[in-house]
Amino acid sequence: MTLSRNNSHQMDEPSPLPYTIQNLHAGQHYIRDGTTIIPCQSTTDPLSLPPSQEVIKVLSKQMGRLLLQLDIAWVTKEGSGVLPTEAEAMRLVFNNTDVPGPEVLFASFHRVNEIADPQQCDIRDSNPPDGLIGMTIAPGIPMTDEWDTLDDDAKESICYQLWDLVAKFRTIAHPQNDTNVRTRIYERYLHFGGLRYKNQLPRMLPRSEHSVFTHADIAPRNVMVDEENRVTGLLDWEWAGWYPDYWEYAQIMRPAFKGDWSEWMERTAPQRWDLRGIGAARKVLF
């Protein structure tokens, strides 16, 4: 009987799996040992493991990109579409402002090889698809987990904090106007069959005489806060760069967020722009 119970217990133990993208699932924890992984509990203490092993938490897995937390040390973002521009944007903000966010620890980028099945590619292969960014862990909790539970005072406070952070990285200026951006929007609008505002759109689009450094994707999912509702980190600088000074506002006002997030950001904005032209273009382009 004892032998039978032992055999049954052994059969219930998870078997090691190859360390590949398809074997990792969002929200799950694993113990990695070389090229294999074993599912584990979220309470597993990395300090209790031998040096050859580490605990991996899959923070996100979507659109060919993987966001992992490794032990209690760092976070990696890797996969398709992870480009050098994101790492450079993070370094630029970290080195030139006091805006809270991850520090880039290492990064490598490669051309995508011809792989029959990218899902079977070993994540640590010497030539991974596109890119890999290693960064420090941003403290706090994602604002998506907190926003709907906050009262009006807390929401207002967070929004004012975010606009203050925007003002800080906007000082990293780049001397150019927005003519190219407006031309591009108009050309794309016509290309995709936009007819209603064919003649009016160039006049409807907001104008700017200079560009400023812009995050371009400030949303609850990319904001970390602590228990006292202080912003502790801005994440995901994938779309960051120099844009017309109205672009941050336009991106935050996108009709893509549930709840009253955009309403509070609009209410606390230090400056507002007429976005009717952007809205007309988005109905066709986005």
Automatic annotation (TrEMBL):
<dbReference type="InterPro" id="IPR002575">
    <property type="entry name" value="Aminoglycoside_PTrfase"/>
</dbReference>
<dbReference type="GO" id="GO:0016301">
    <property type="term" value="F:kinase activity"/>
</dbReference>
<dbReference type="InterPro" id="IPR011009">
    <property type="entry name" value="Kinase-like_dom_sf"/>
</dbReference>
<dbReference type="InterPro" id="IPR051678">
    <property type="entry name" value="AGP_Transferase"/>
</dbReference>
<protein>
    <submittedName>
        <fullName>Kinase-like protein</fullName>
    </submittedName>
</protein>
<dbReference type="Pfam" id="PF01636">
    <property type="entry name" value="APH"/>
</dbReference>
<feature type="domain" description="Aminoglycoside phosphotransferase">
    <location>
        <begin position="129"/>
        <end position="265"/>
    </location>
</feature>
